[in-house]
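Example (one chain per record):
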Amino acid sequence: MTKSDLIEKVRERLKDYPKKDVVFATDIIFQAMTDALARDEKVEVRGFGNFTVRSRNSRKGRDPRTGTVINVDSRKVPFFRVGKAVRNLINA
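Predicted structure:
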């Protein structure tokens, strides 16, 4: 599902709202989630899952084209952990 698919699903349920309002609300939600993750905060959507930020240590990597060893710097990456309700729904 893409963002535009999600917007269309919301519009199907909220027929009284114009598309531009649904797009605006969706953008606000995603921006709030992104801002929270940028501040290293946890984003919890009950019944769906949790978004967190994890730290990856620096390590030695390999350039696949040349085979030379390179240093990969430490970095932070977003991580999603699915909620129990969604996991049960998928496995049912």
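Caption: The chain has two domains: 1-39, 41-92.
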